[in-house]
Design brief:
The complex is a heterodimer of chains A (about 250) and B (about 220). Chain A is about 35% helix and about 25% strand. In chain A, a hairpin with a 2-residue loop joins strand 4 and strand 5. In chain A, the strands form two sheets. Chain A has a six-stranded mixed sheet, with helices on both faces. A four-stranded antiparallel sheet of chain A has the order 2-1-4-5, with helices on one face. In chain A, helix 3 crosses helix 4. Chain A is globular. Chain A contains ten helices and ten strands. Chain A is an alpha/beta fold and about 250 residues long. Chain A has one domain: P-loop containing nucleotide triphosphate hydrolases (Rossmann fold, 3-Layer(aba) Sandwich), CATH 3.40.50.300. With about 220 residues, chain B is mostly helical. Chain B has one domain: Methane Monooxygenase Hydroxylase, Chain G, domain 1. Chain B has seven helices and no strands. Classes of the chains: A alpha/beta (about 250), B mainly alpha (about 220). Chains A and B meet through helix 8 and helix 10 of A and helix 3 of B.
Chain lengths: ~250, ~220
């Protein structure tokens, strides 16, 4: 399968702290790539830097290349608004806007001007169907989004991304605020979404990475220690540090 | 970091070692009964078989429990899955030792057909394979496990030699057929024990390095 995102020799610093150390990896198109590792290993930093979320942090510097379909995202000339449409982020805590369900999903297409007013309801419906939320909310599209359950809110946030047809979905601990039933729904949803989208997920939950992903990267202290096929990583990791972490011997 | 899980894995490993040494002892006693023409050793073999069967069940239960509760990955997962496989191999080794005793019981009712020379040699090699297979498991020693795989050819050669020799007896005197057949069956029992030791060695190589060497699987995967 083709790679859609090439990360090449990326180094990043928060001030003097070296947060990403010569990280290189390629993300396969229409696959789920999981990044695991202990707290502070740089996994969130890596994913956040893919859509330049850290740019505003004082002391943040980054070098190397992140090529999305050949275009370097780290290039100063890269248009951030367009970038965040192409690579959208789902966060740990669902963060719908405090407006109606419909408006949450319609927001993106509206500001990007990608959809005419007449087409908007159809795009909203399609996006809500993509996350399985449509049947649950179709009769209350005017409800304030914050009234939905946390797991529905998370699916709404994913619908909001899907509405602008991104290439990559970045998920930073998308299930950590959800109960087991909610986690299962999001994980099932990810399998559906990967038919059309590329997903990169950061997770603390090793078993979640094992369940949902096709490829897994293990990070430790800013290094990408090992990257490979998920089955290989969890059945027979090559690096002893990976083995120690996933079997709970690290730390 | 020390994990309680490690204590549970070690307890399981101890059970496997106990099961393995028992199966190995059974093989030794069965051949001793044949060589010394003394059935009392067979009684010990039958007694040990109960222990082996019991451990087989206990080990499988422990593995299922640990998989359910600990959701093991990587080396822990490989160890647990292979523990049940090694347990089954050991149980079959014990069965073969019992079969040797049954063939011996038959033989001891008749005079000695010929002095036993190759069979004890073959038994030594096979016992060594079982012992090395177990040692390689305990010490996580893939090199020793590979030696076990190589020894298997020697065992096959012994079996062929025994068969050819006894064939000449049977052709020259039909009265020897039933005794010769019992001895051929015993060599077949020993050969099977060697095969089970080989399977254990293959499992150990997988536990240690994550490589499946059964049926030249690695080469096939590379194409």
């Amino acid at each position: 399968m083709n790679s859609i995102l090439e990360i090449k020799n990326v180094n990043a610093y928060y001030g003097v702290f070296h947060a990403l150390k010569s990280v290189s990896m390629s993300v396969r198109e229409r696959a789920i790539t999981a990044i695991i590792g202990p707290s502070g290993c740089g996994k969130s930093t890596l994913v956040r830097s893919i859509n330049r979320m850290n740019d505003h942090i004082p002391g943040w510097t980054i070098s190397g290349e992140m090529l999305l379909d050949g275009e370097n995202l780290l290039d100063r000339k890269c248009d951030l608004i367009n970038l965040r449409k192409r690579a959208g982020m789902v966060f740990q805590r669902p963060n719908p806007f405090p407006i109606s369900v419909f408006e949450n999903v319609a927001y993106g297409p509206r500001i990007h001007g990608t959809v005419s007013r007449r087409e908007l309801p159809a795009v909203v419906e399609k996006s809500l169907r993509a996350t399985g939320l449509w049947d649950e909310v179709k009769d209350r599209l005017d409800t304030i989004a914050l009234r939905l359950s946390p797991e529905q809110q998370q699916r709404l946030c994913i619908s909001r991304l899907v509405a602008v047809e991104p290439e990559v979905l970045l998920m930073d601990e998308p299930c950590s605020a959800l109960d087991p039933a909610g986690i299962q729904k999001i994980e099932e949803l990810m399998q559906e979404l990967k038919k059309n989208y590329t997903i990169v997920i950061v997770t603390h939950n090793m078993h979640q990475a094992a369940r949902v992903s096709d490829e897994t990267g293990f990070m430790l202290l800013g290094d990408l220690v090992e990257f490979g096929d998920t089955v290989q990583i969890f059945e027979a990791p090559r690096d002893t540090r990976t083995e120690e972490y996933i079997t709970g011997r690290y730390g | 970091m020390h994990r309680r899980f490690d204590d549970e894995l070690n307890a399981l490993k101890e059970k496997l070692v106990r099961m393995g040494t028992t199966a190995q002892t059974m093989t030794h006693l069965a051949i001793r009964a044949l060589v010394e023409r003394d059935e009392k050793y067979c009684q010990d073999v039958f007694r040990h078989e109960e222990t082996v069967n019991e451990l087989n069940i206990v080990i499988d239960e422990a593995v299922l429990k640990l998989i359910a509760l600990r959701q093991p990955v990587a080396g822990d997962l490989r160890f647990l899955v292979m523990s049940t496989k090694i347990g089954s191999e050991l149980e079959r080794i014990a069965d073969q030792a019992v079969n040797i005793c049954q063939n011996t019981h038959f033989l001891l009712q008749y005079p000695l057909l010929k002095p036993l020379i190759v069979t004890p040699l073959m038994a030594d090699v096979v016992e060594g394979m079982v012992r090395d297979g177990l040692d390689s498991f305990v010490r996580r020693d893939a090199a020793l496990a590979r030696q076990v795989l190589e020894t298997d050819d020697k065992v096959d050669a012994f079996k062929d030699q025994i068969f050819r020799e006894l064939l000449t007896y049977m052709m020259s005197d039909p009265d020897t057929v039933h005794r010769a057949l019992a001895l051929i069956l015993i060599s077949r029992n020993l050969e099977r024990i060697g095969d089970h030791a080989t399977n254990i060695a293959e499992d150990v190589i997988y536990v240690v390095g994550g490589k499946d060497v059964r049926h030249h699987h690695e080469e096939k995967k590379r194409g």
